[in-house]
Amino acid sequence: MTPTHRTTQLGTTGPRVFPIALGCMSMSGAYGPSDETESIATLREAIERGVTLLDTADFYASGHNELLIRRAIEGQRDKVRLSVKFGAMRGPDGAPGGFDARPAAVKNFITYSLQRLGVDHIDVYRPARLDPTVPIEDTVGAIADLVKGGYVRSIGLSEVGAETIRRAAKVHPLSDLQIEYSLITRKPEKTLFPTLTELGMSATLYGVLSRGLLTGAKVEGARVHYPRFAGEAGQRNAAAVARFHAYAAERGMTPAQLSVAWVLAKQPAFVPVVGARTRKQLLDVLGALEKPLSSDDVAAVEAILPKEAIAGTRYPEQQMKMLDSER
């Protein structure tokens, strides 16, 4: 793997990046214990291998994730592009405290992110969700002011629907939508992806491993609260995924590689965001770039693990109700 791999443009206004991005949330304990030394080593290995886009949020472990990234990119800022989400509120015990995307809050959030990351600008800045009490035009307008001030390079959105995207795009050009997408989470294909193409936007696709469901990850941390891992649905899904694992083995691929390769084949203009938290996981995922799938391969994978084979929603019921992208 070398930095000479093809790159992907994030819309018409965003940066050109390596075809796989590194999602950093799991490095701050979201899915069980993580090791800071290994996390930093993984980030540096990713940069050495050519990965350019690092995705984080100011609320991942209440700023811990941004501080971790700061240590990893020191002396290498010119090699990376930072995608930062904001808006989710947390109490001192880590409990959710709602969402805030008011213009004054936006400018407050970025002030602290710049300090924690040790940078003078953020490459793609985006609200993590739609604030139901604030017009999207006001939120995007506030980020547009930050673009004018040189603190932000590009504006993105996350988990919003087509109507919201259109309204936001009238205020300022948008680089990309961050949305969950995988072999078993394909709803964005229907309305969202055509809207992005129409507006000249790209997408950064998280959850391509379905939070570890497609790779057989241990059910710990946040996973215990997700319907696809729990009870009868969890047992049914594990059986369905076992067939997927067998097919990957037949092709000489790991489940993670097959998952990422499927996304790259289906959406070559978009960028999968993979949450590797160890160097071993990172190198495994990057191996997907060396094993592209043909259209026949894609059809075979979809026949082995059709989206309807998986039971349960991607988030718990209450969180699903809060997603503008699901309306």
Give the tags.
11 helices; nine-stranded parallel sheet; 327 residues; two-stranded antiparallel ribbon; single chain; 38% helix; TIM Barrel; alpha/beta
Description of the structure:
- The chain has 327 residues and is α/β, with parallel strands linked by helices.
- It has a single domain, classed as NADP-dependent oxidoreductase domain (TIM Barrel, Alpha-Beta Barrel), CATH 3.20.20.
- Helix content is 38%, strand content 16%.
- It has helices at residues 36-48, 64-73, 103-117, 136-149, 162-169, 192-199, 231-250, 255-266, 279-286, 295-304, 317-321, and strands at 8-9, 16-17, 21-23, 53-57, 81-86, 88-90, 96-99, 122-127, 152-155, 157-158, 176-180, 202-206, 271-274.
For the largest beta sheet, what order do the strands appear in spatially?
9-8-5-4-3-13-12-11-10
- Shape category: globular
Q: Beta-strand level of the residues, as a percent range?
A: 15-25%
Please state the structural category. Answer: alpha/beta
Biggest sheet statistics: 9 strands, parallel
Strand tally, please?
Answer: 13
How many angstroms separate the termini? Answer: 40 Å
Helical stretch count?
11
**What share of residues is helical?**
25-40%
- CATH C-level category: Alpha Beta
**Low-pLDDT residue spans:** none
Proper CATH architecture: Alpha-Beta Barrel
Average pLDDT rating? 94
Q: Into how many domains do the coordinates divide?
A: 1
Secondary-structure element series: EEEHEHEEEHEHEEHEHEHHEHHH
Q: Using the CA coordinates, give the radius of gyration.
A: 19 Å
CATH homologous superfamily name? NADP-dependent oxidoreductase domain
> According to CATH, what is the topology?
TIM Barrel
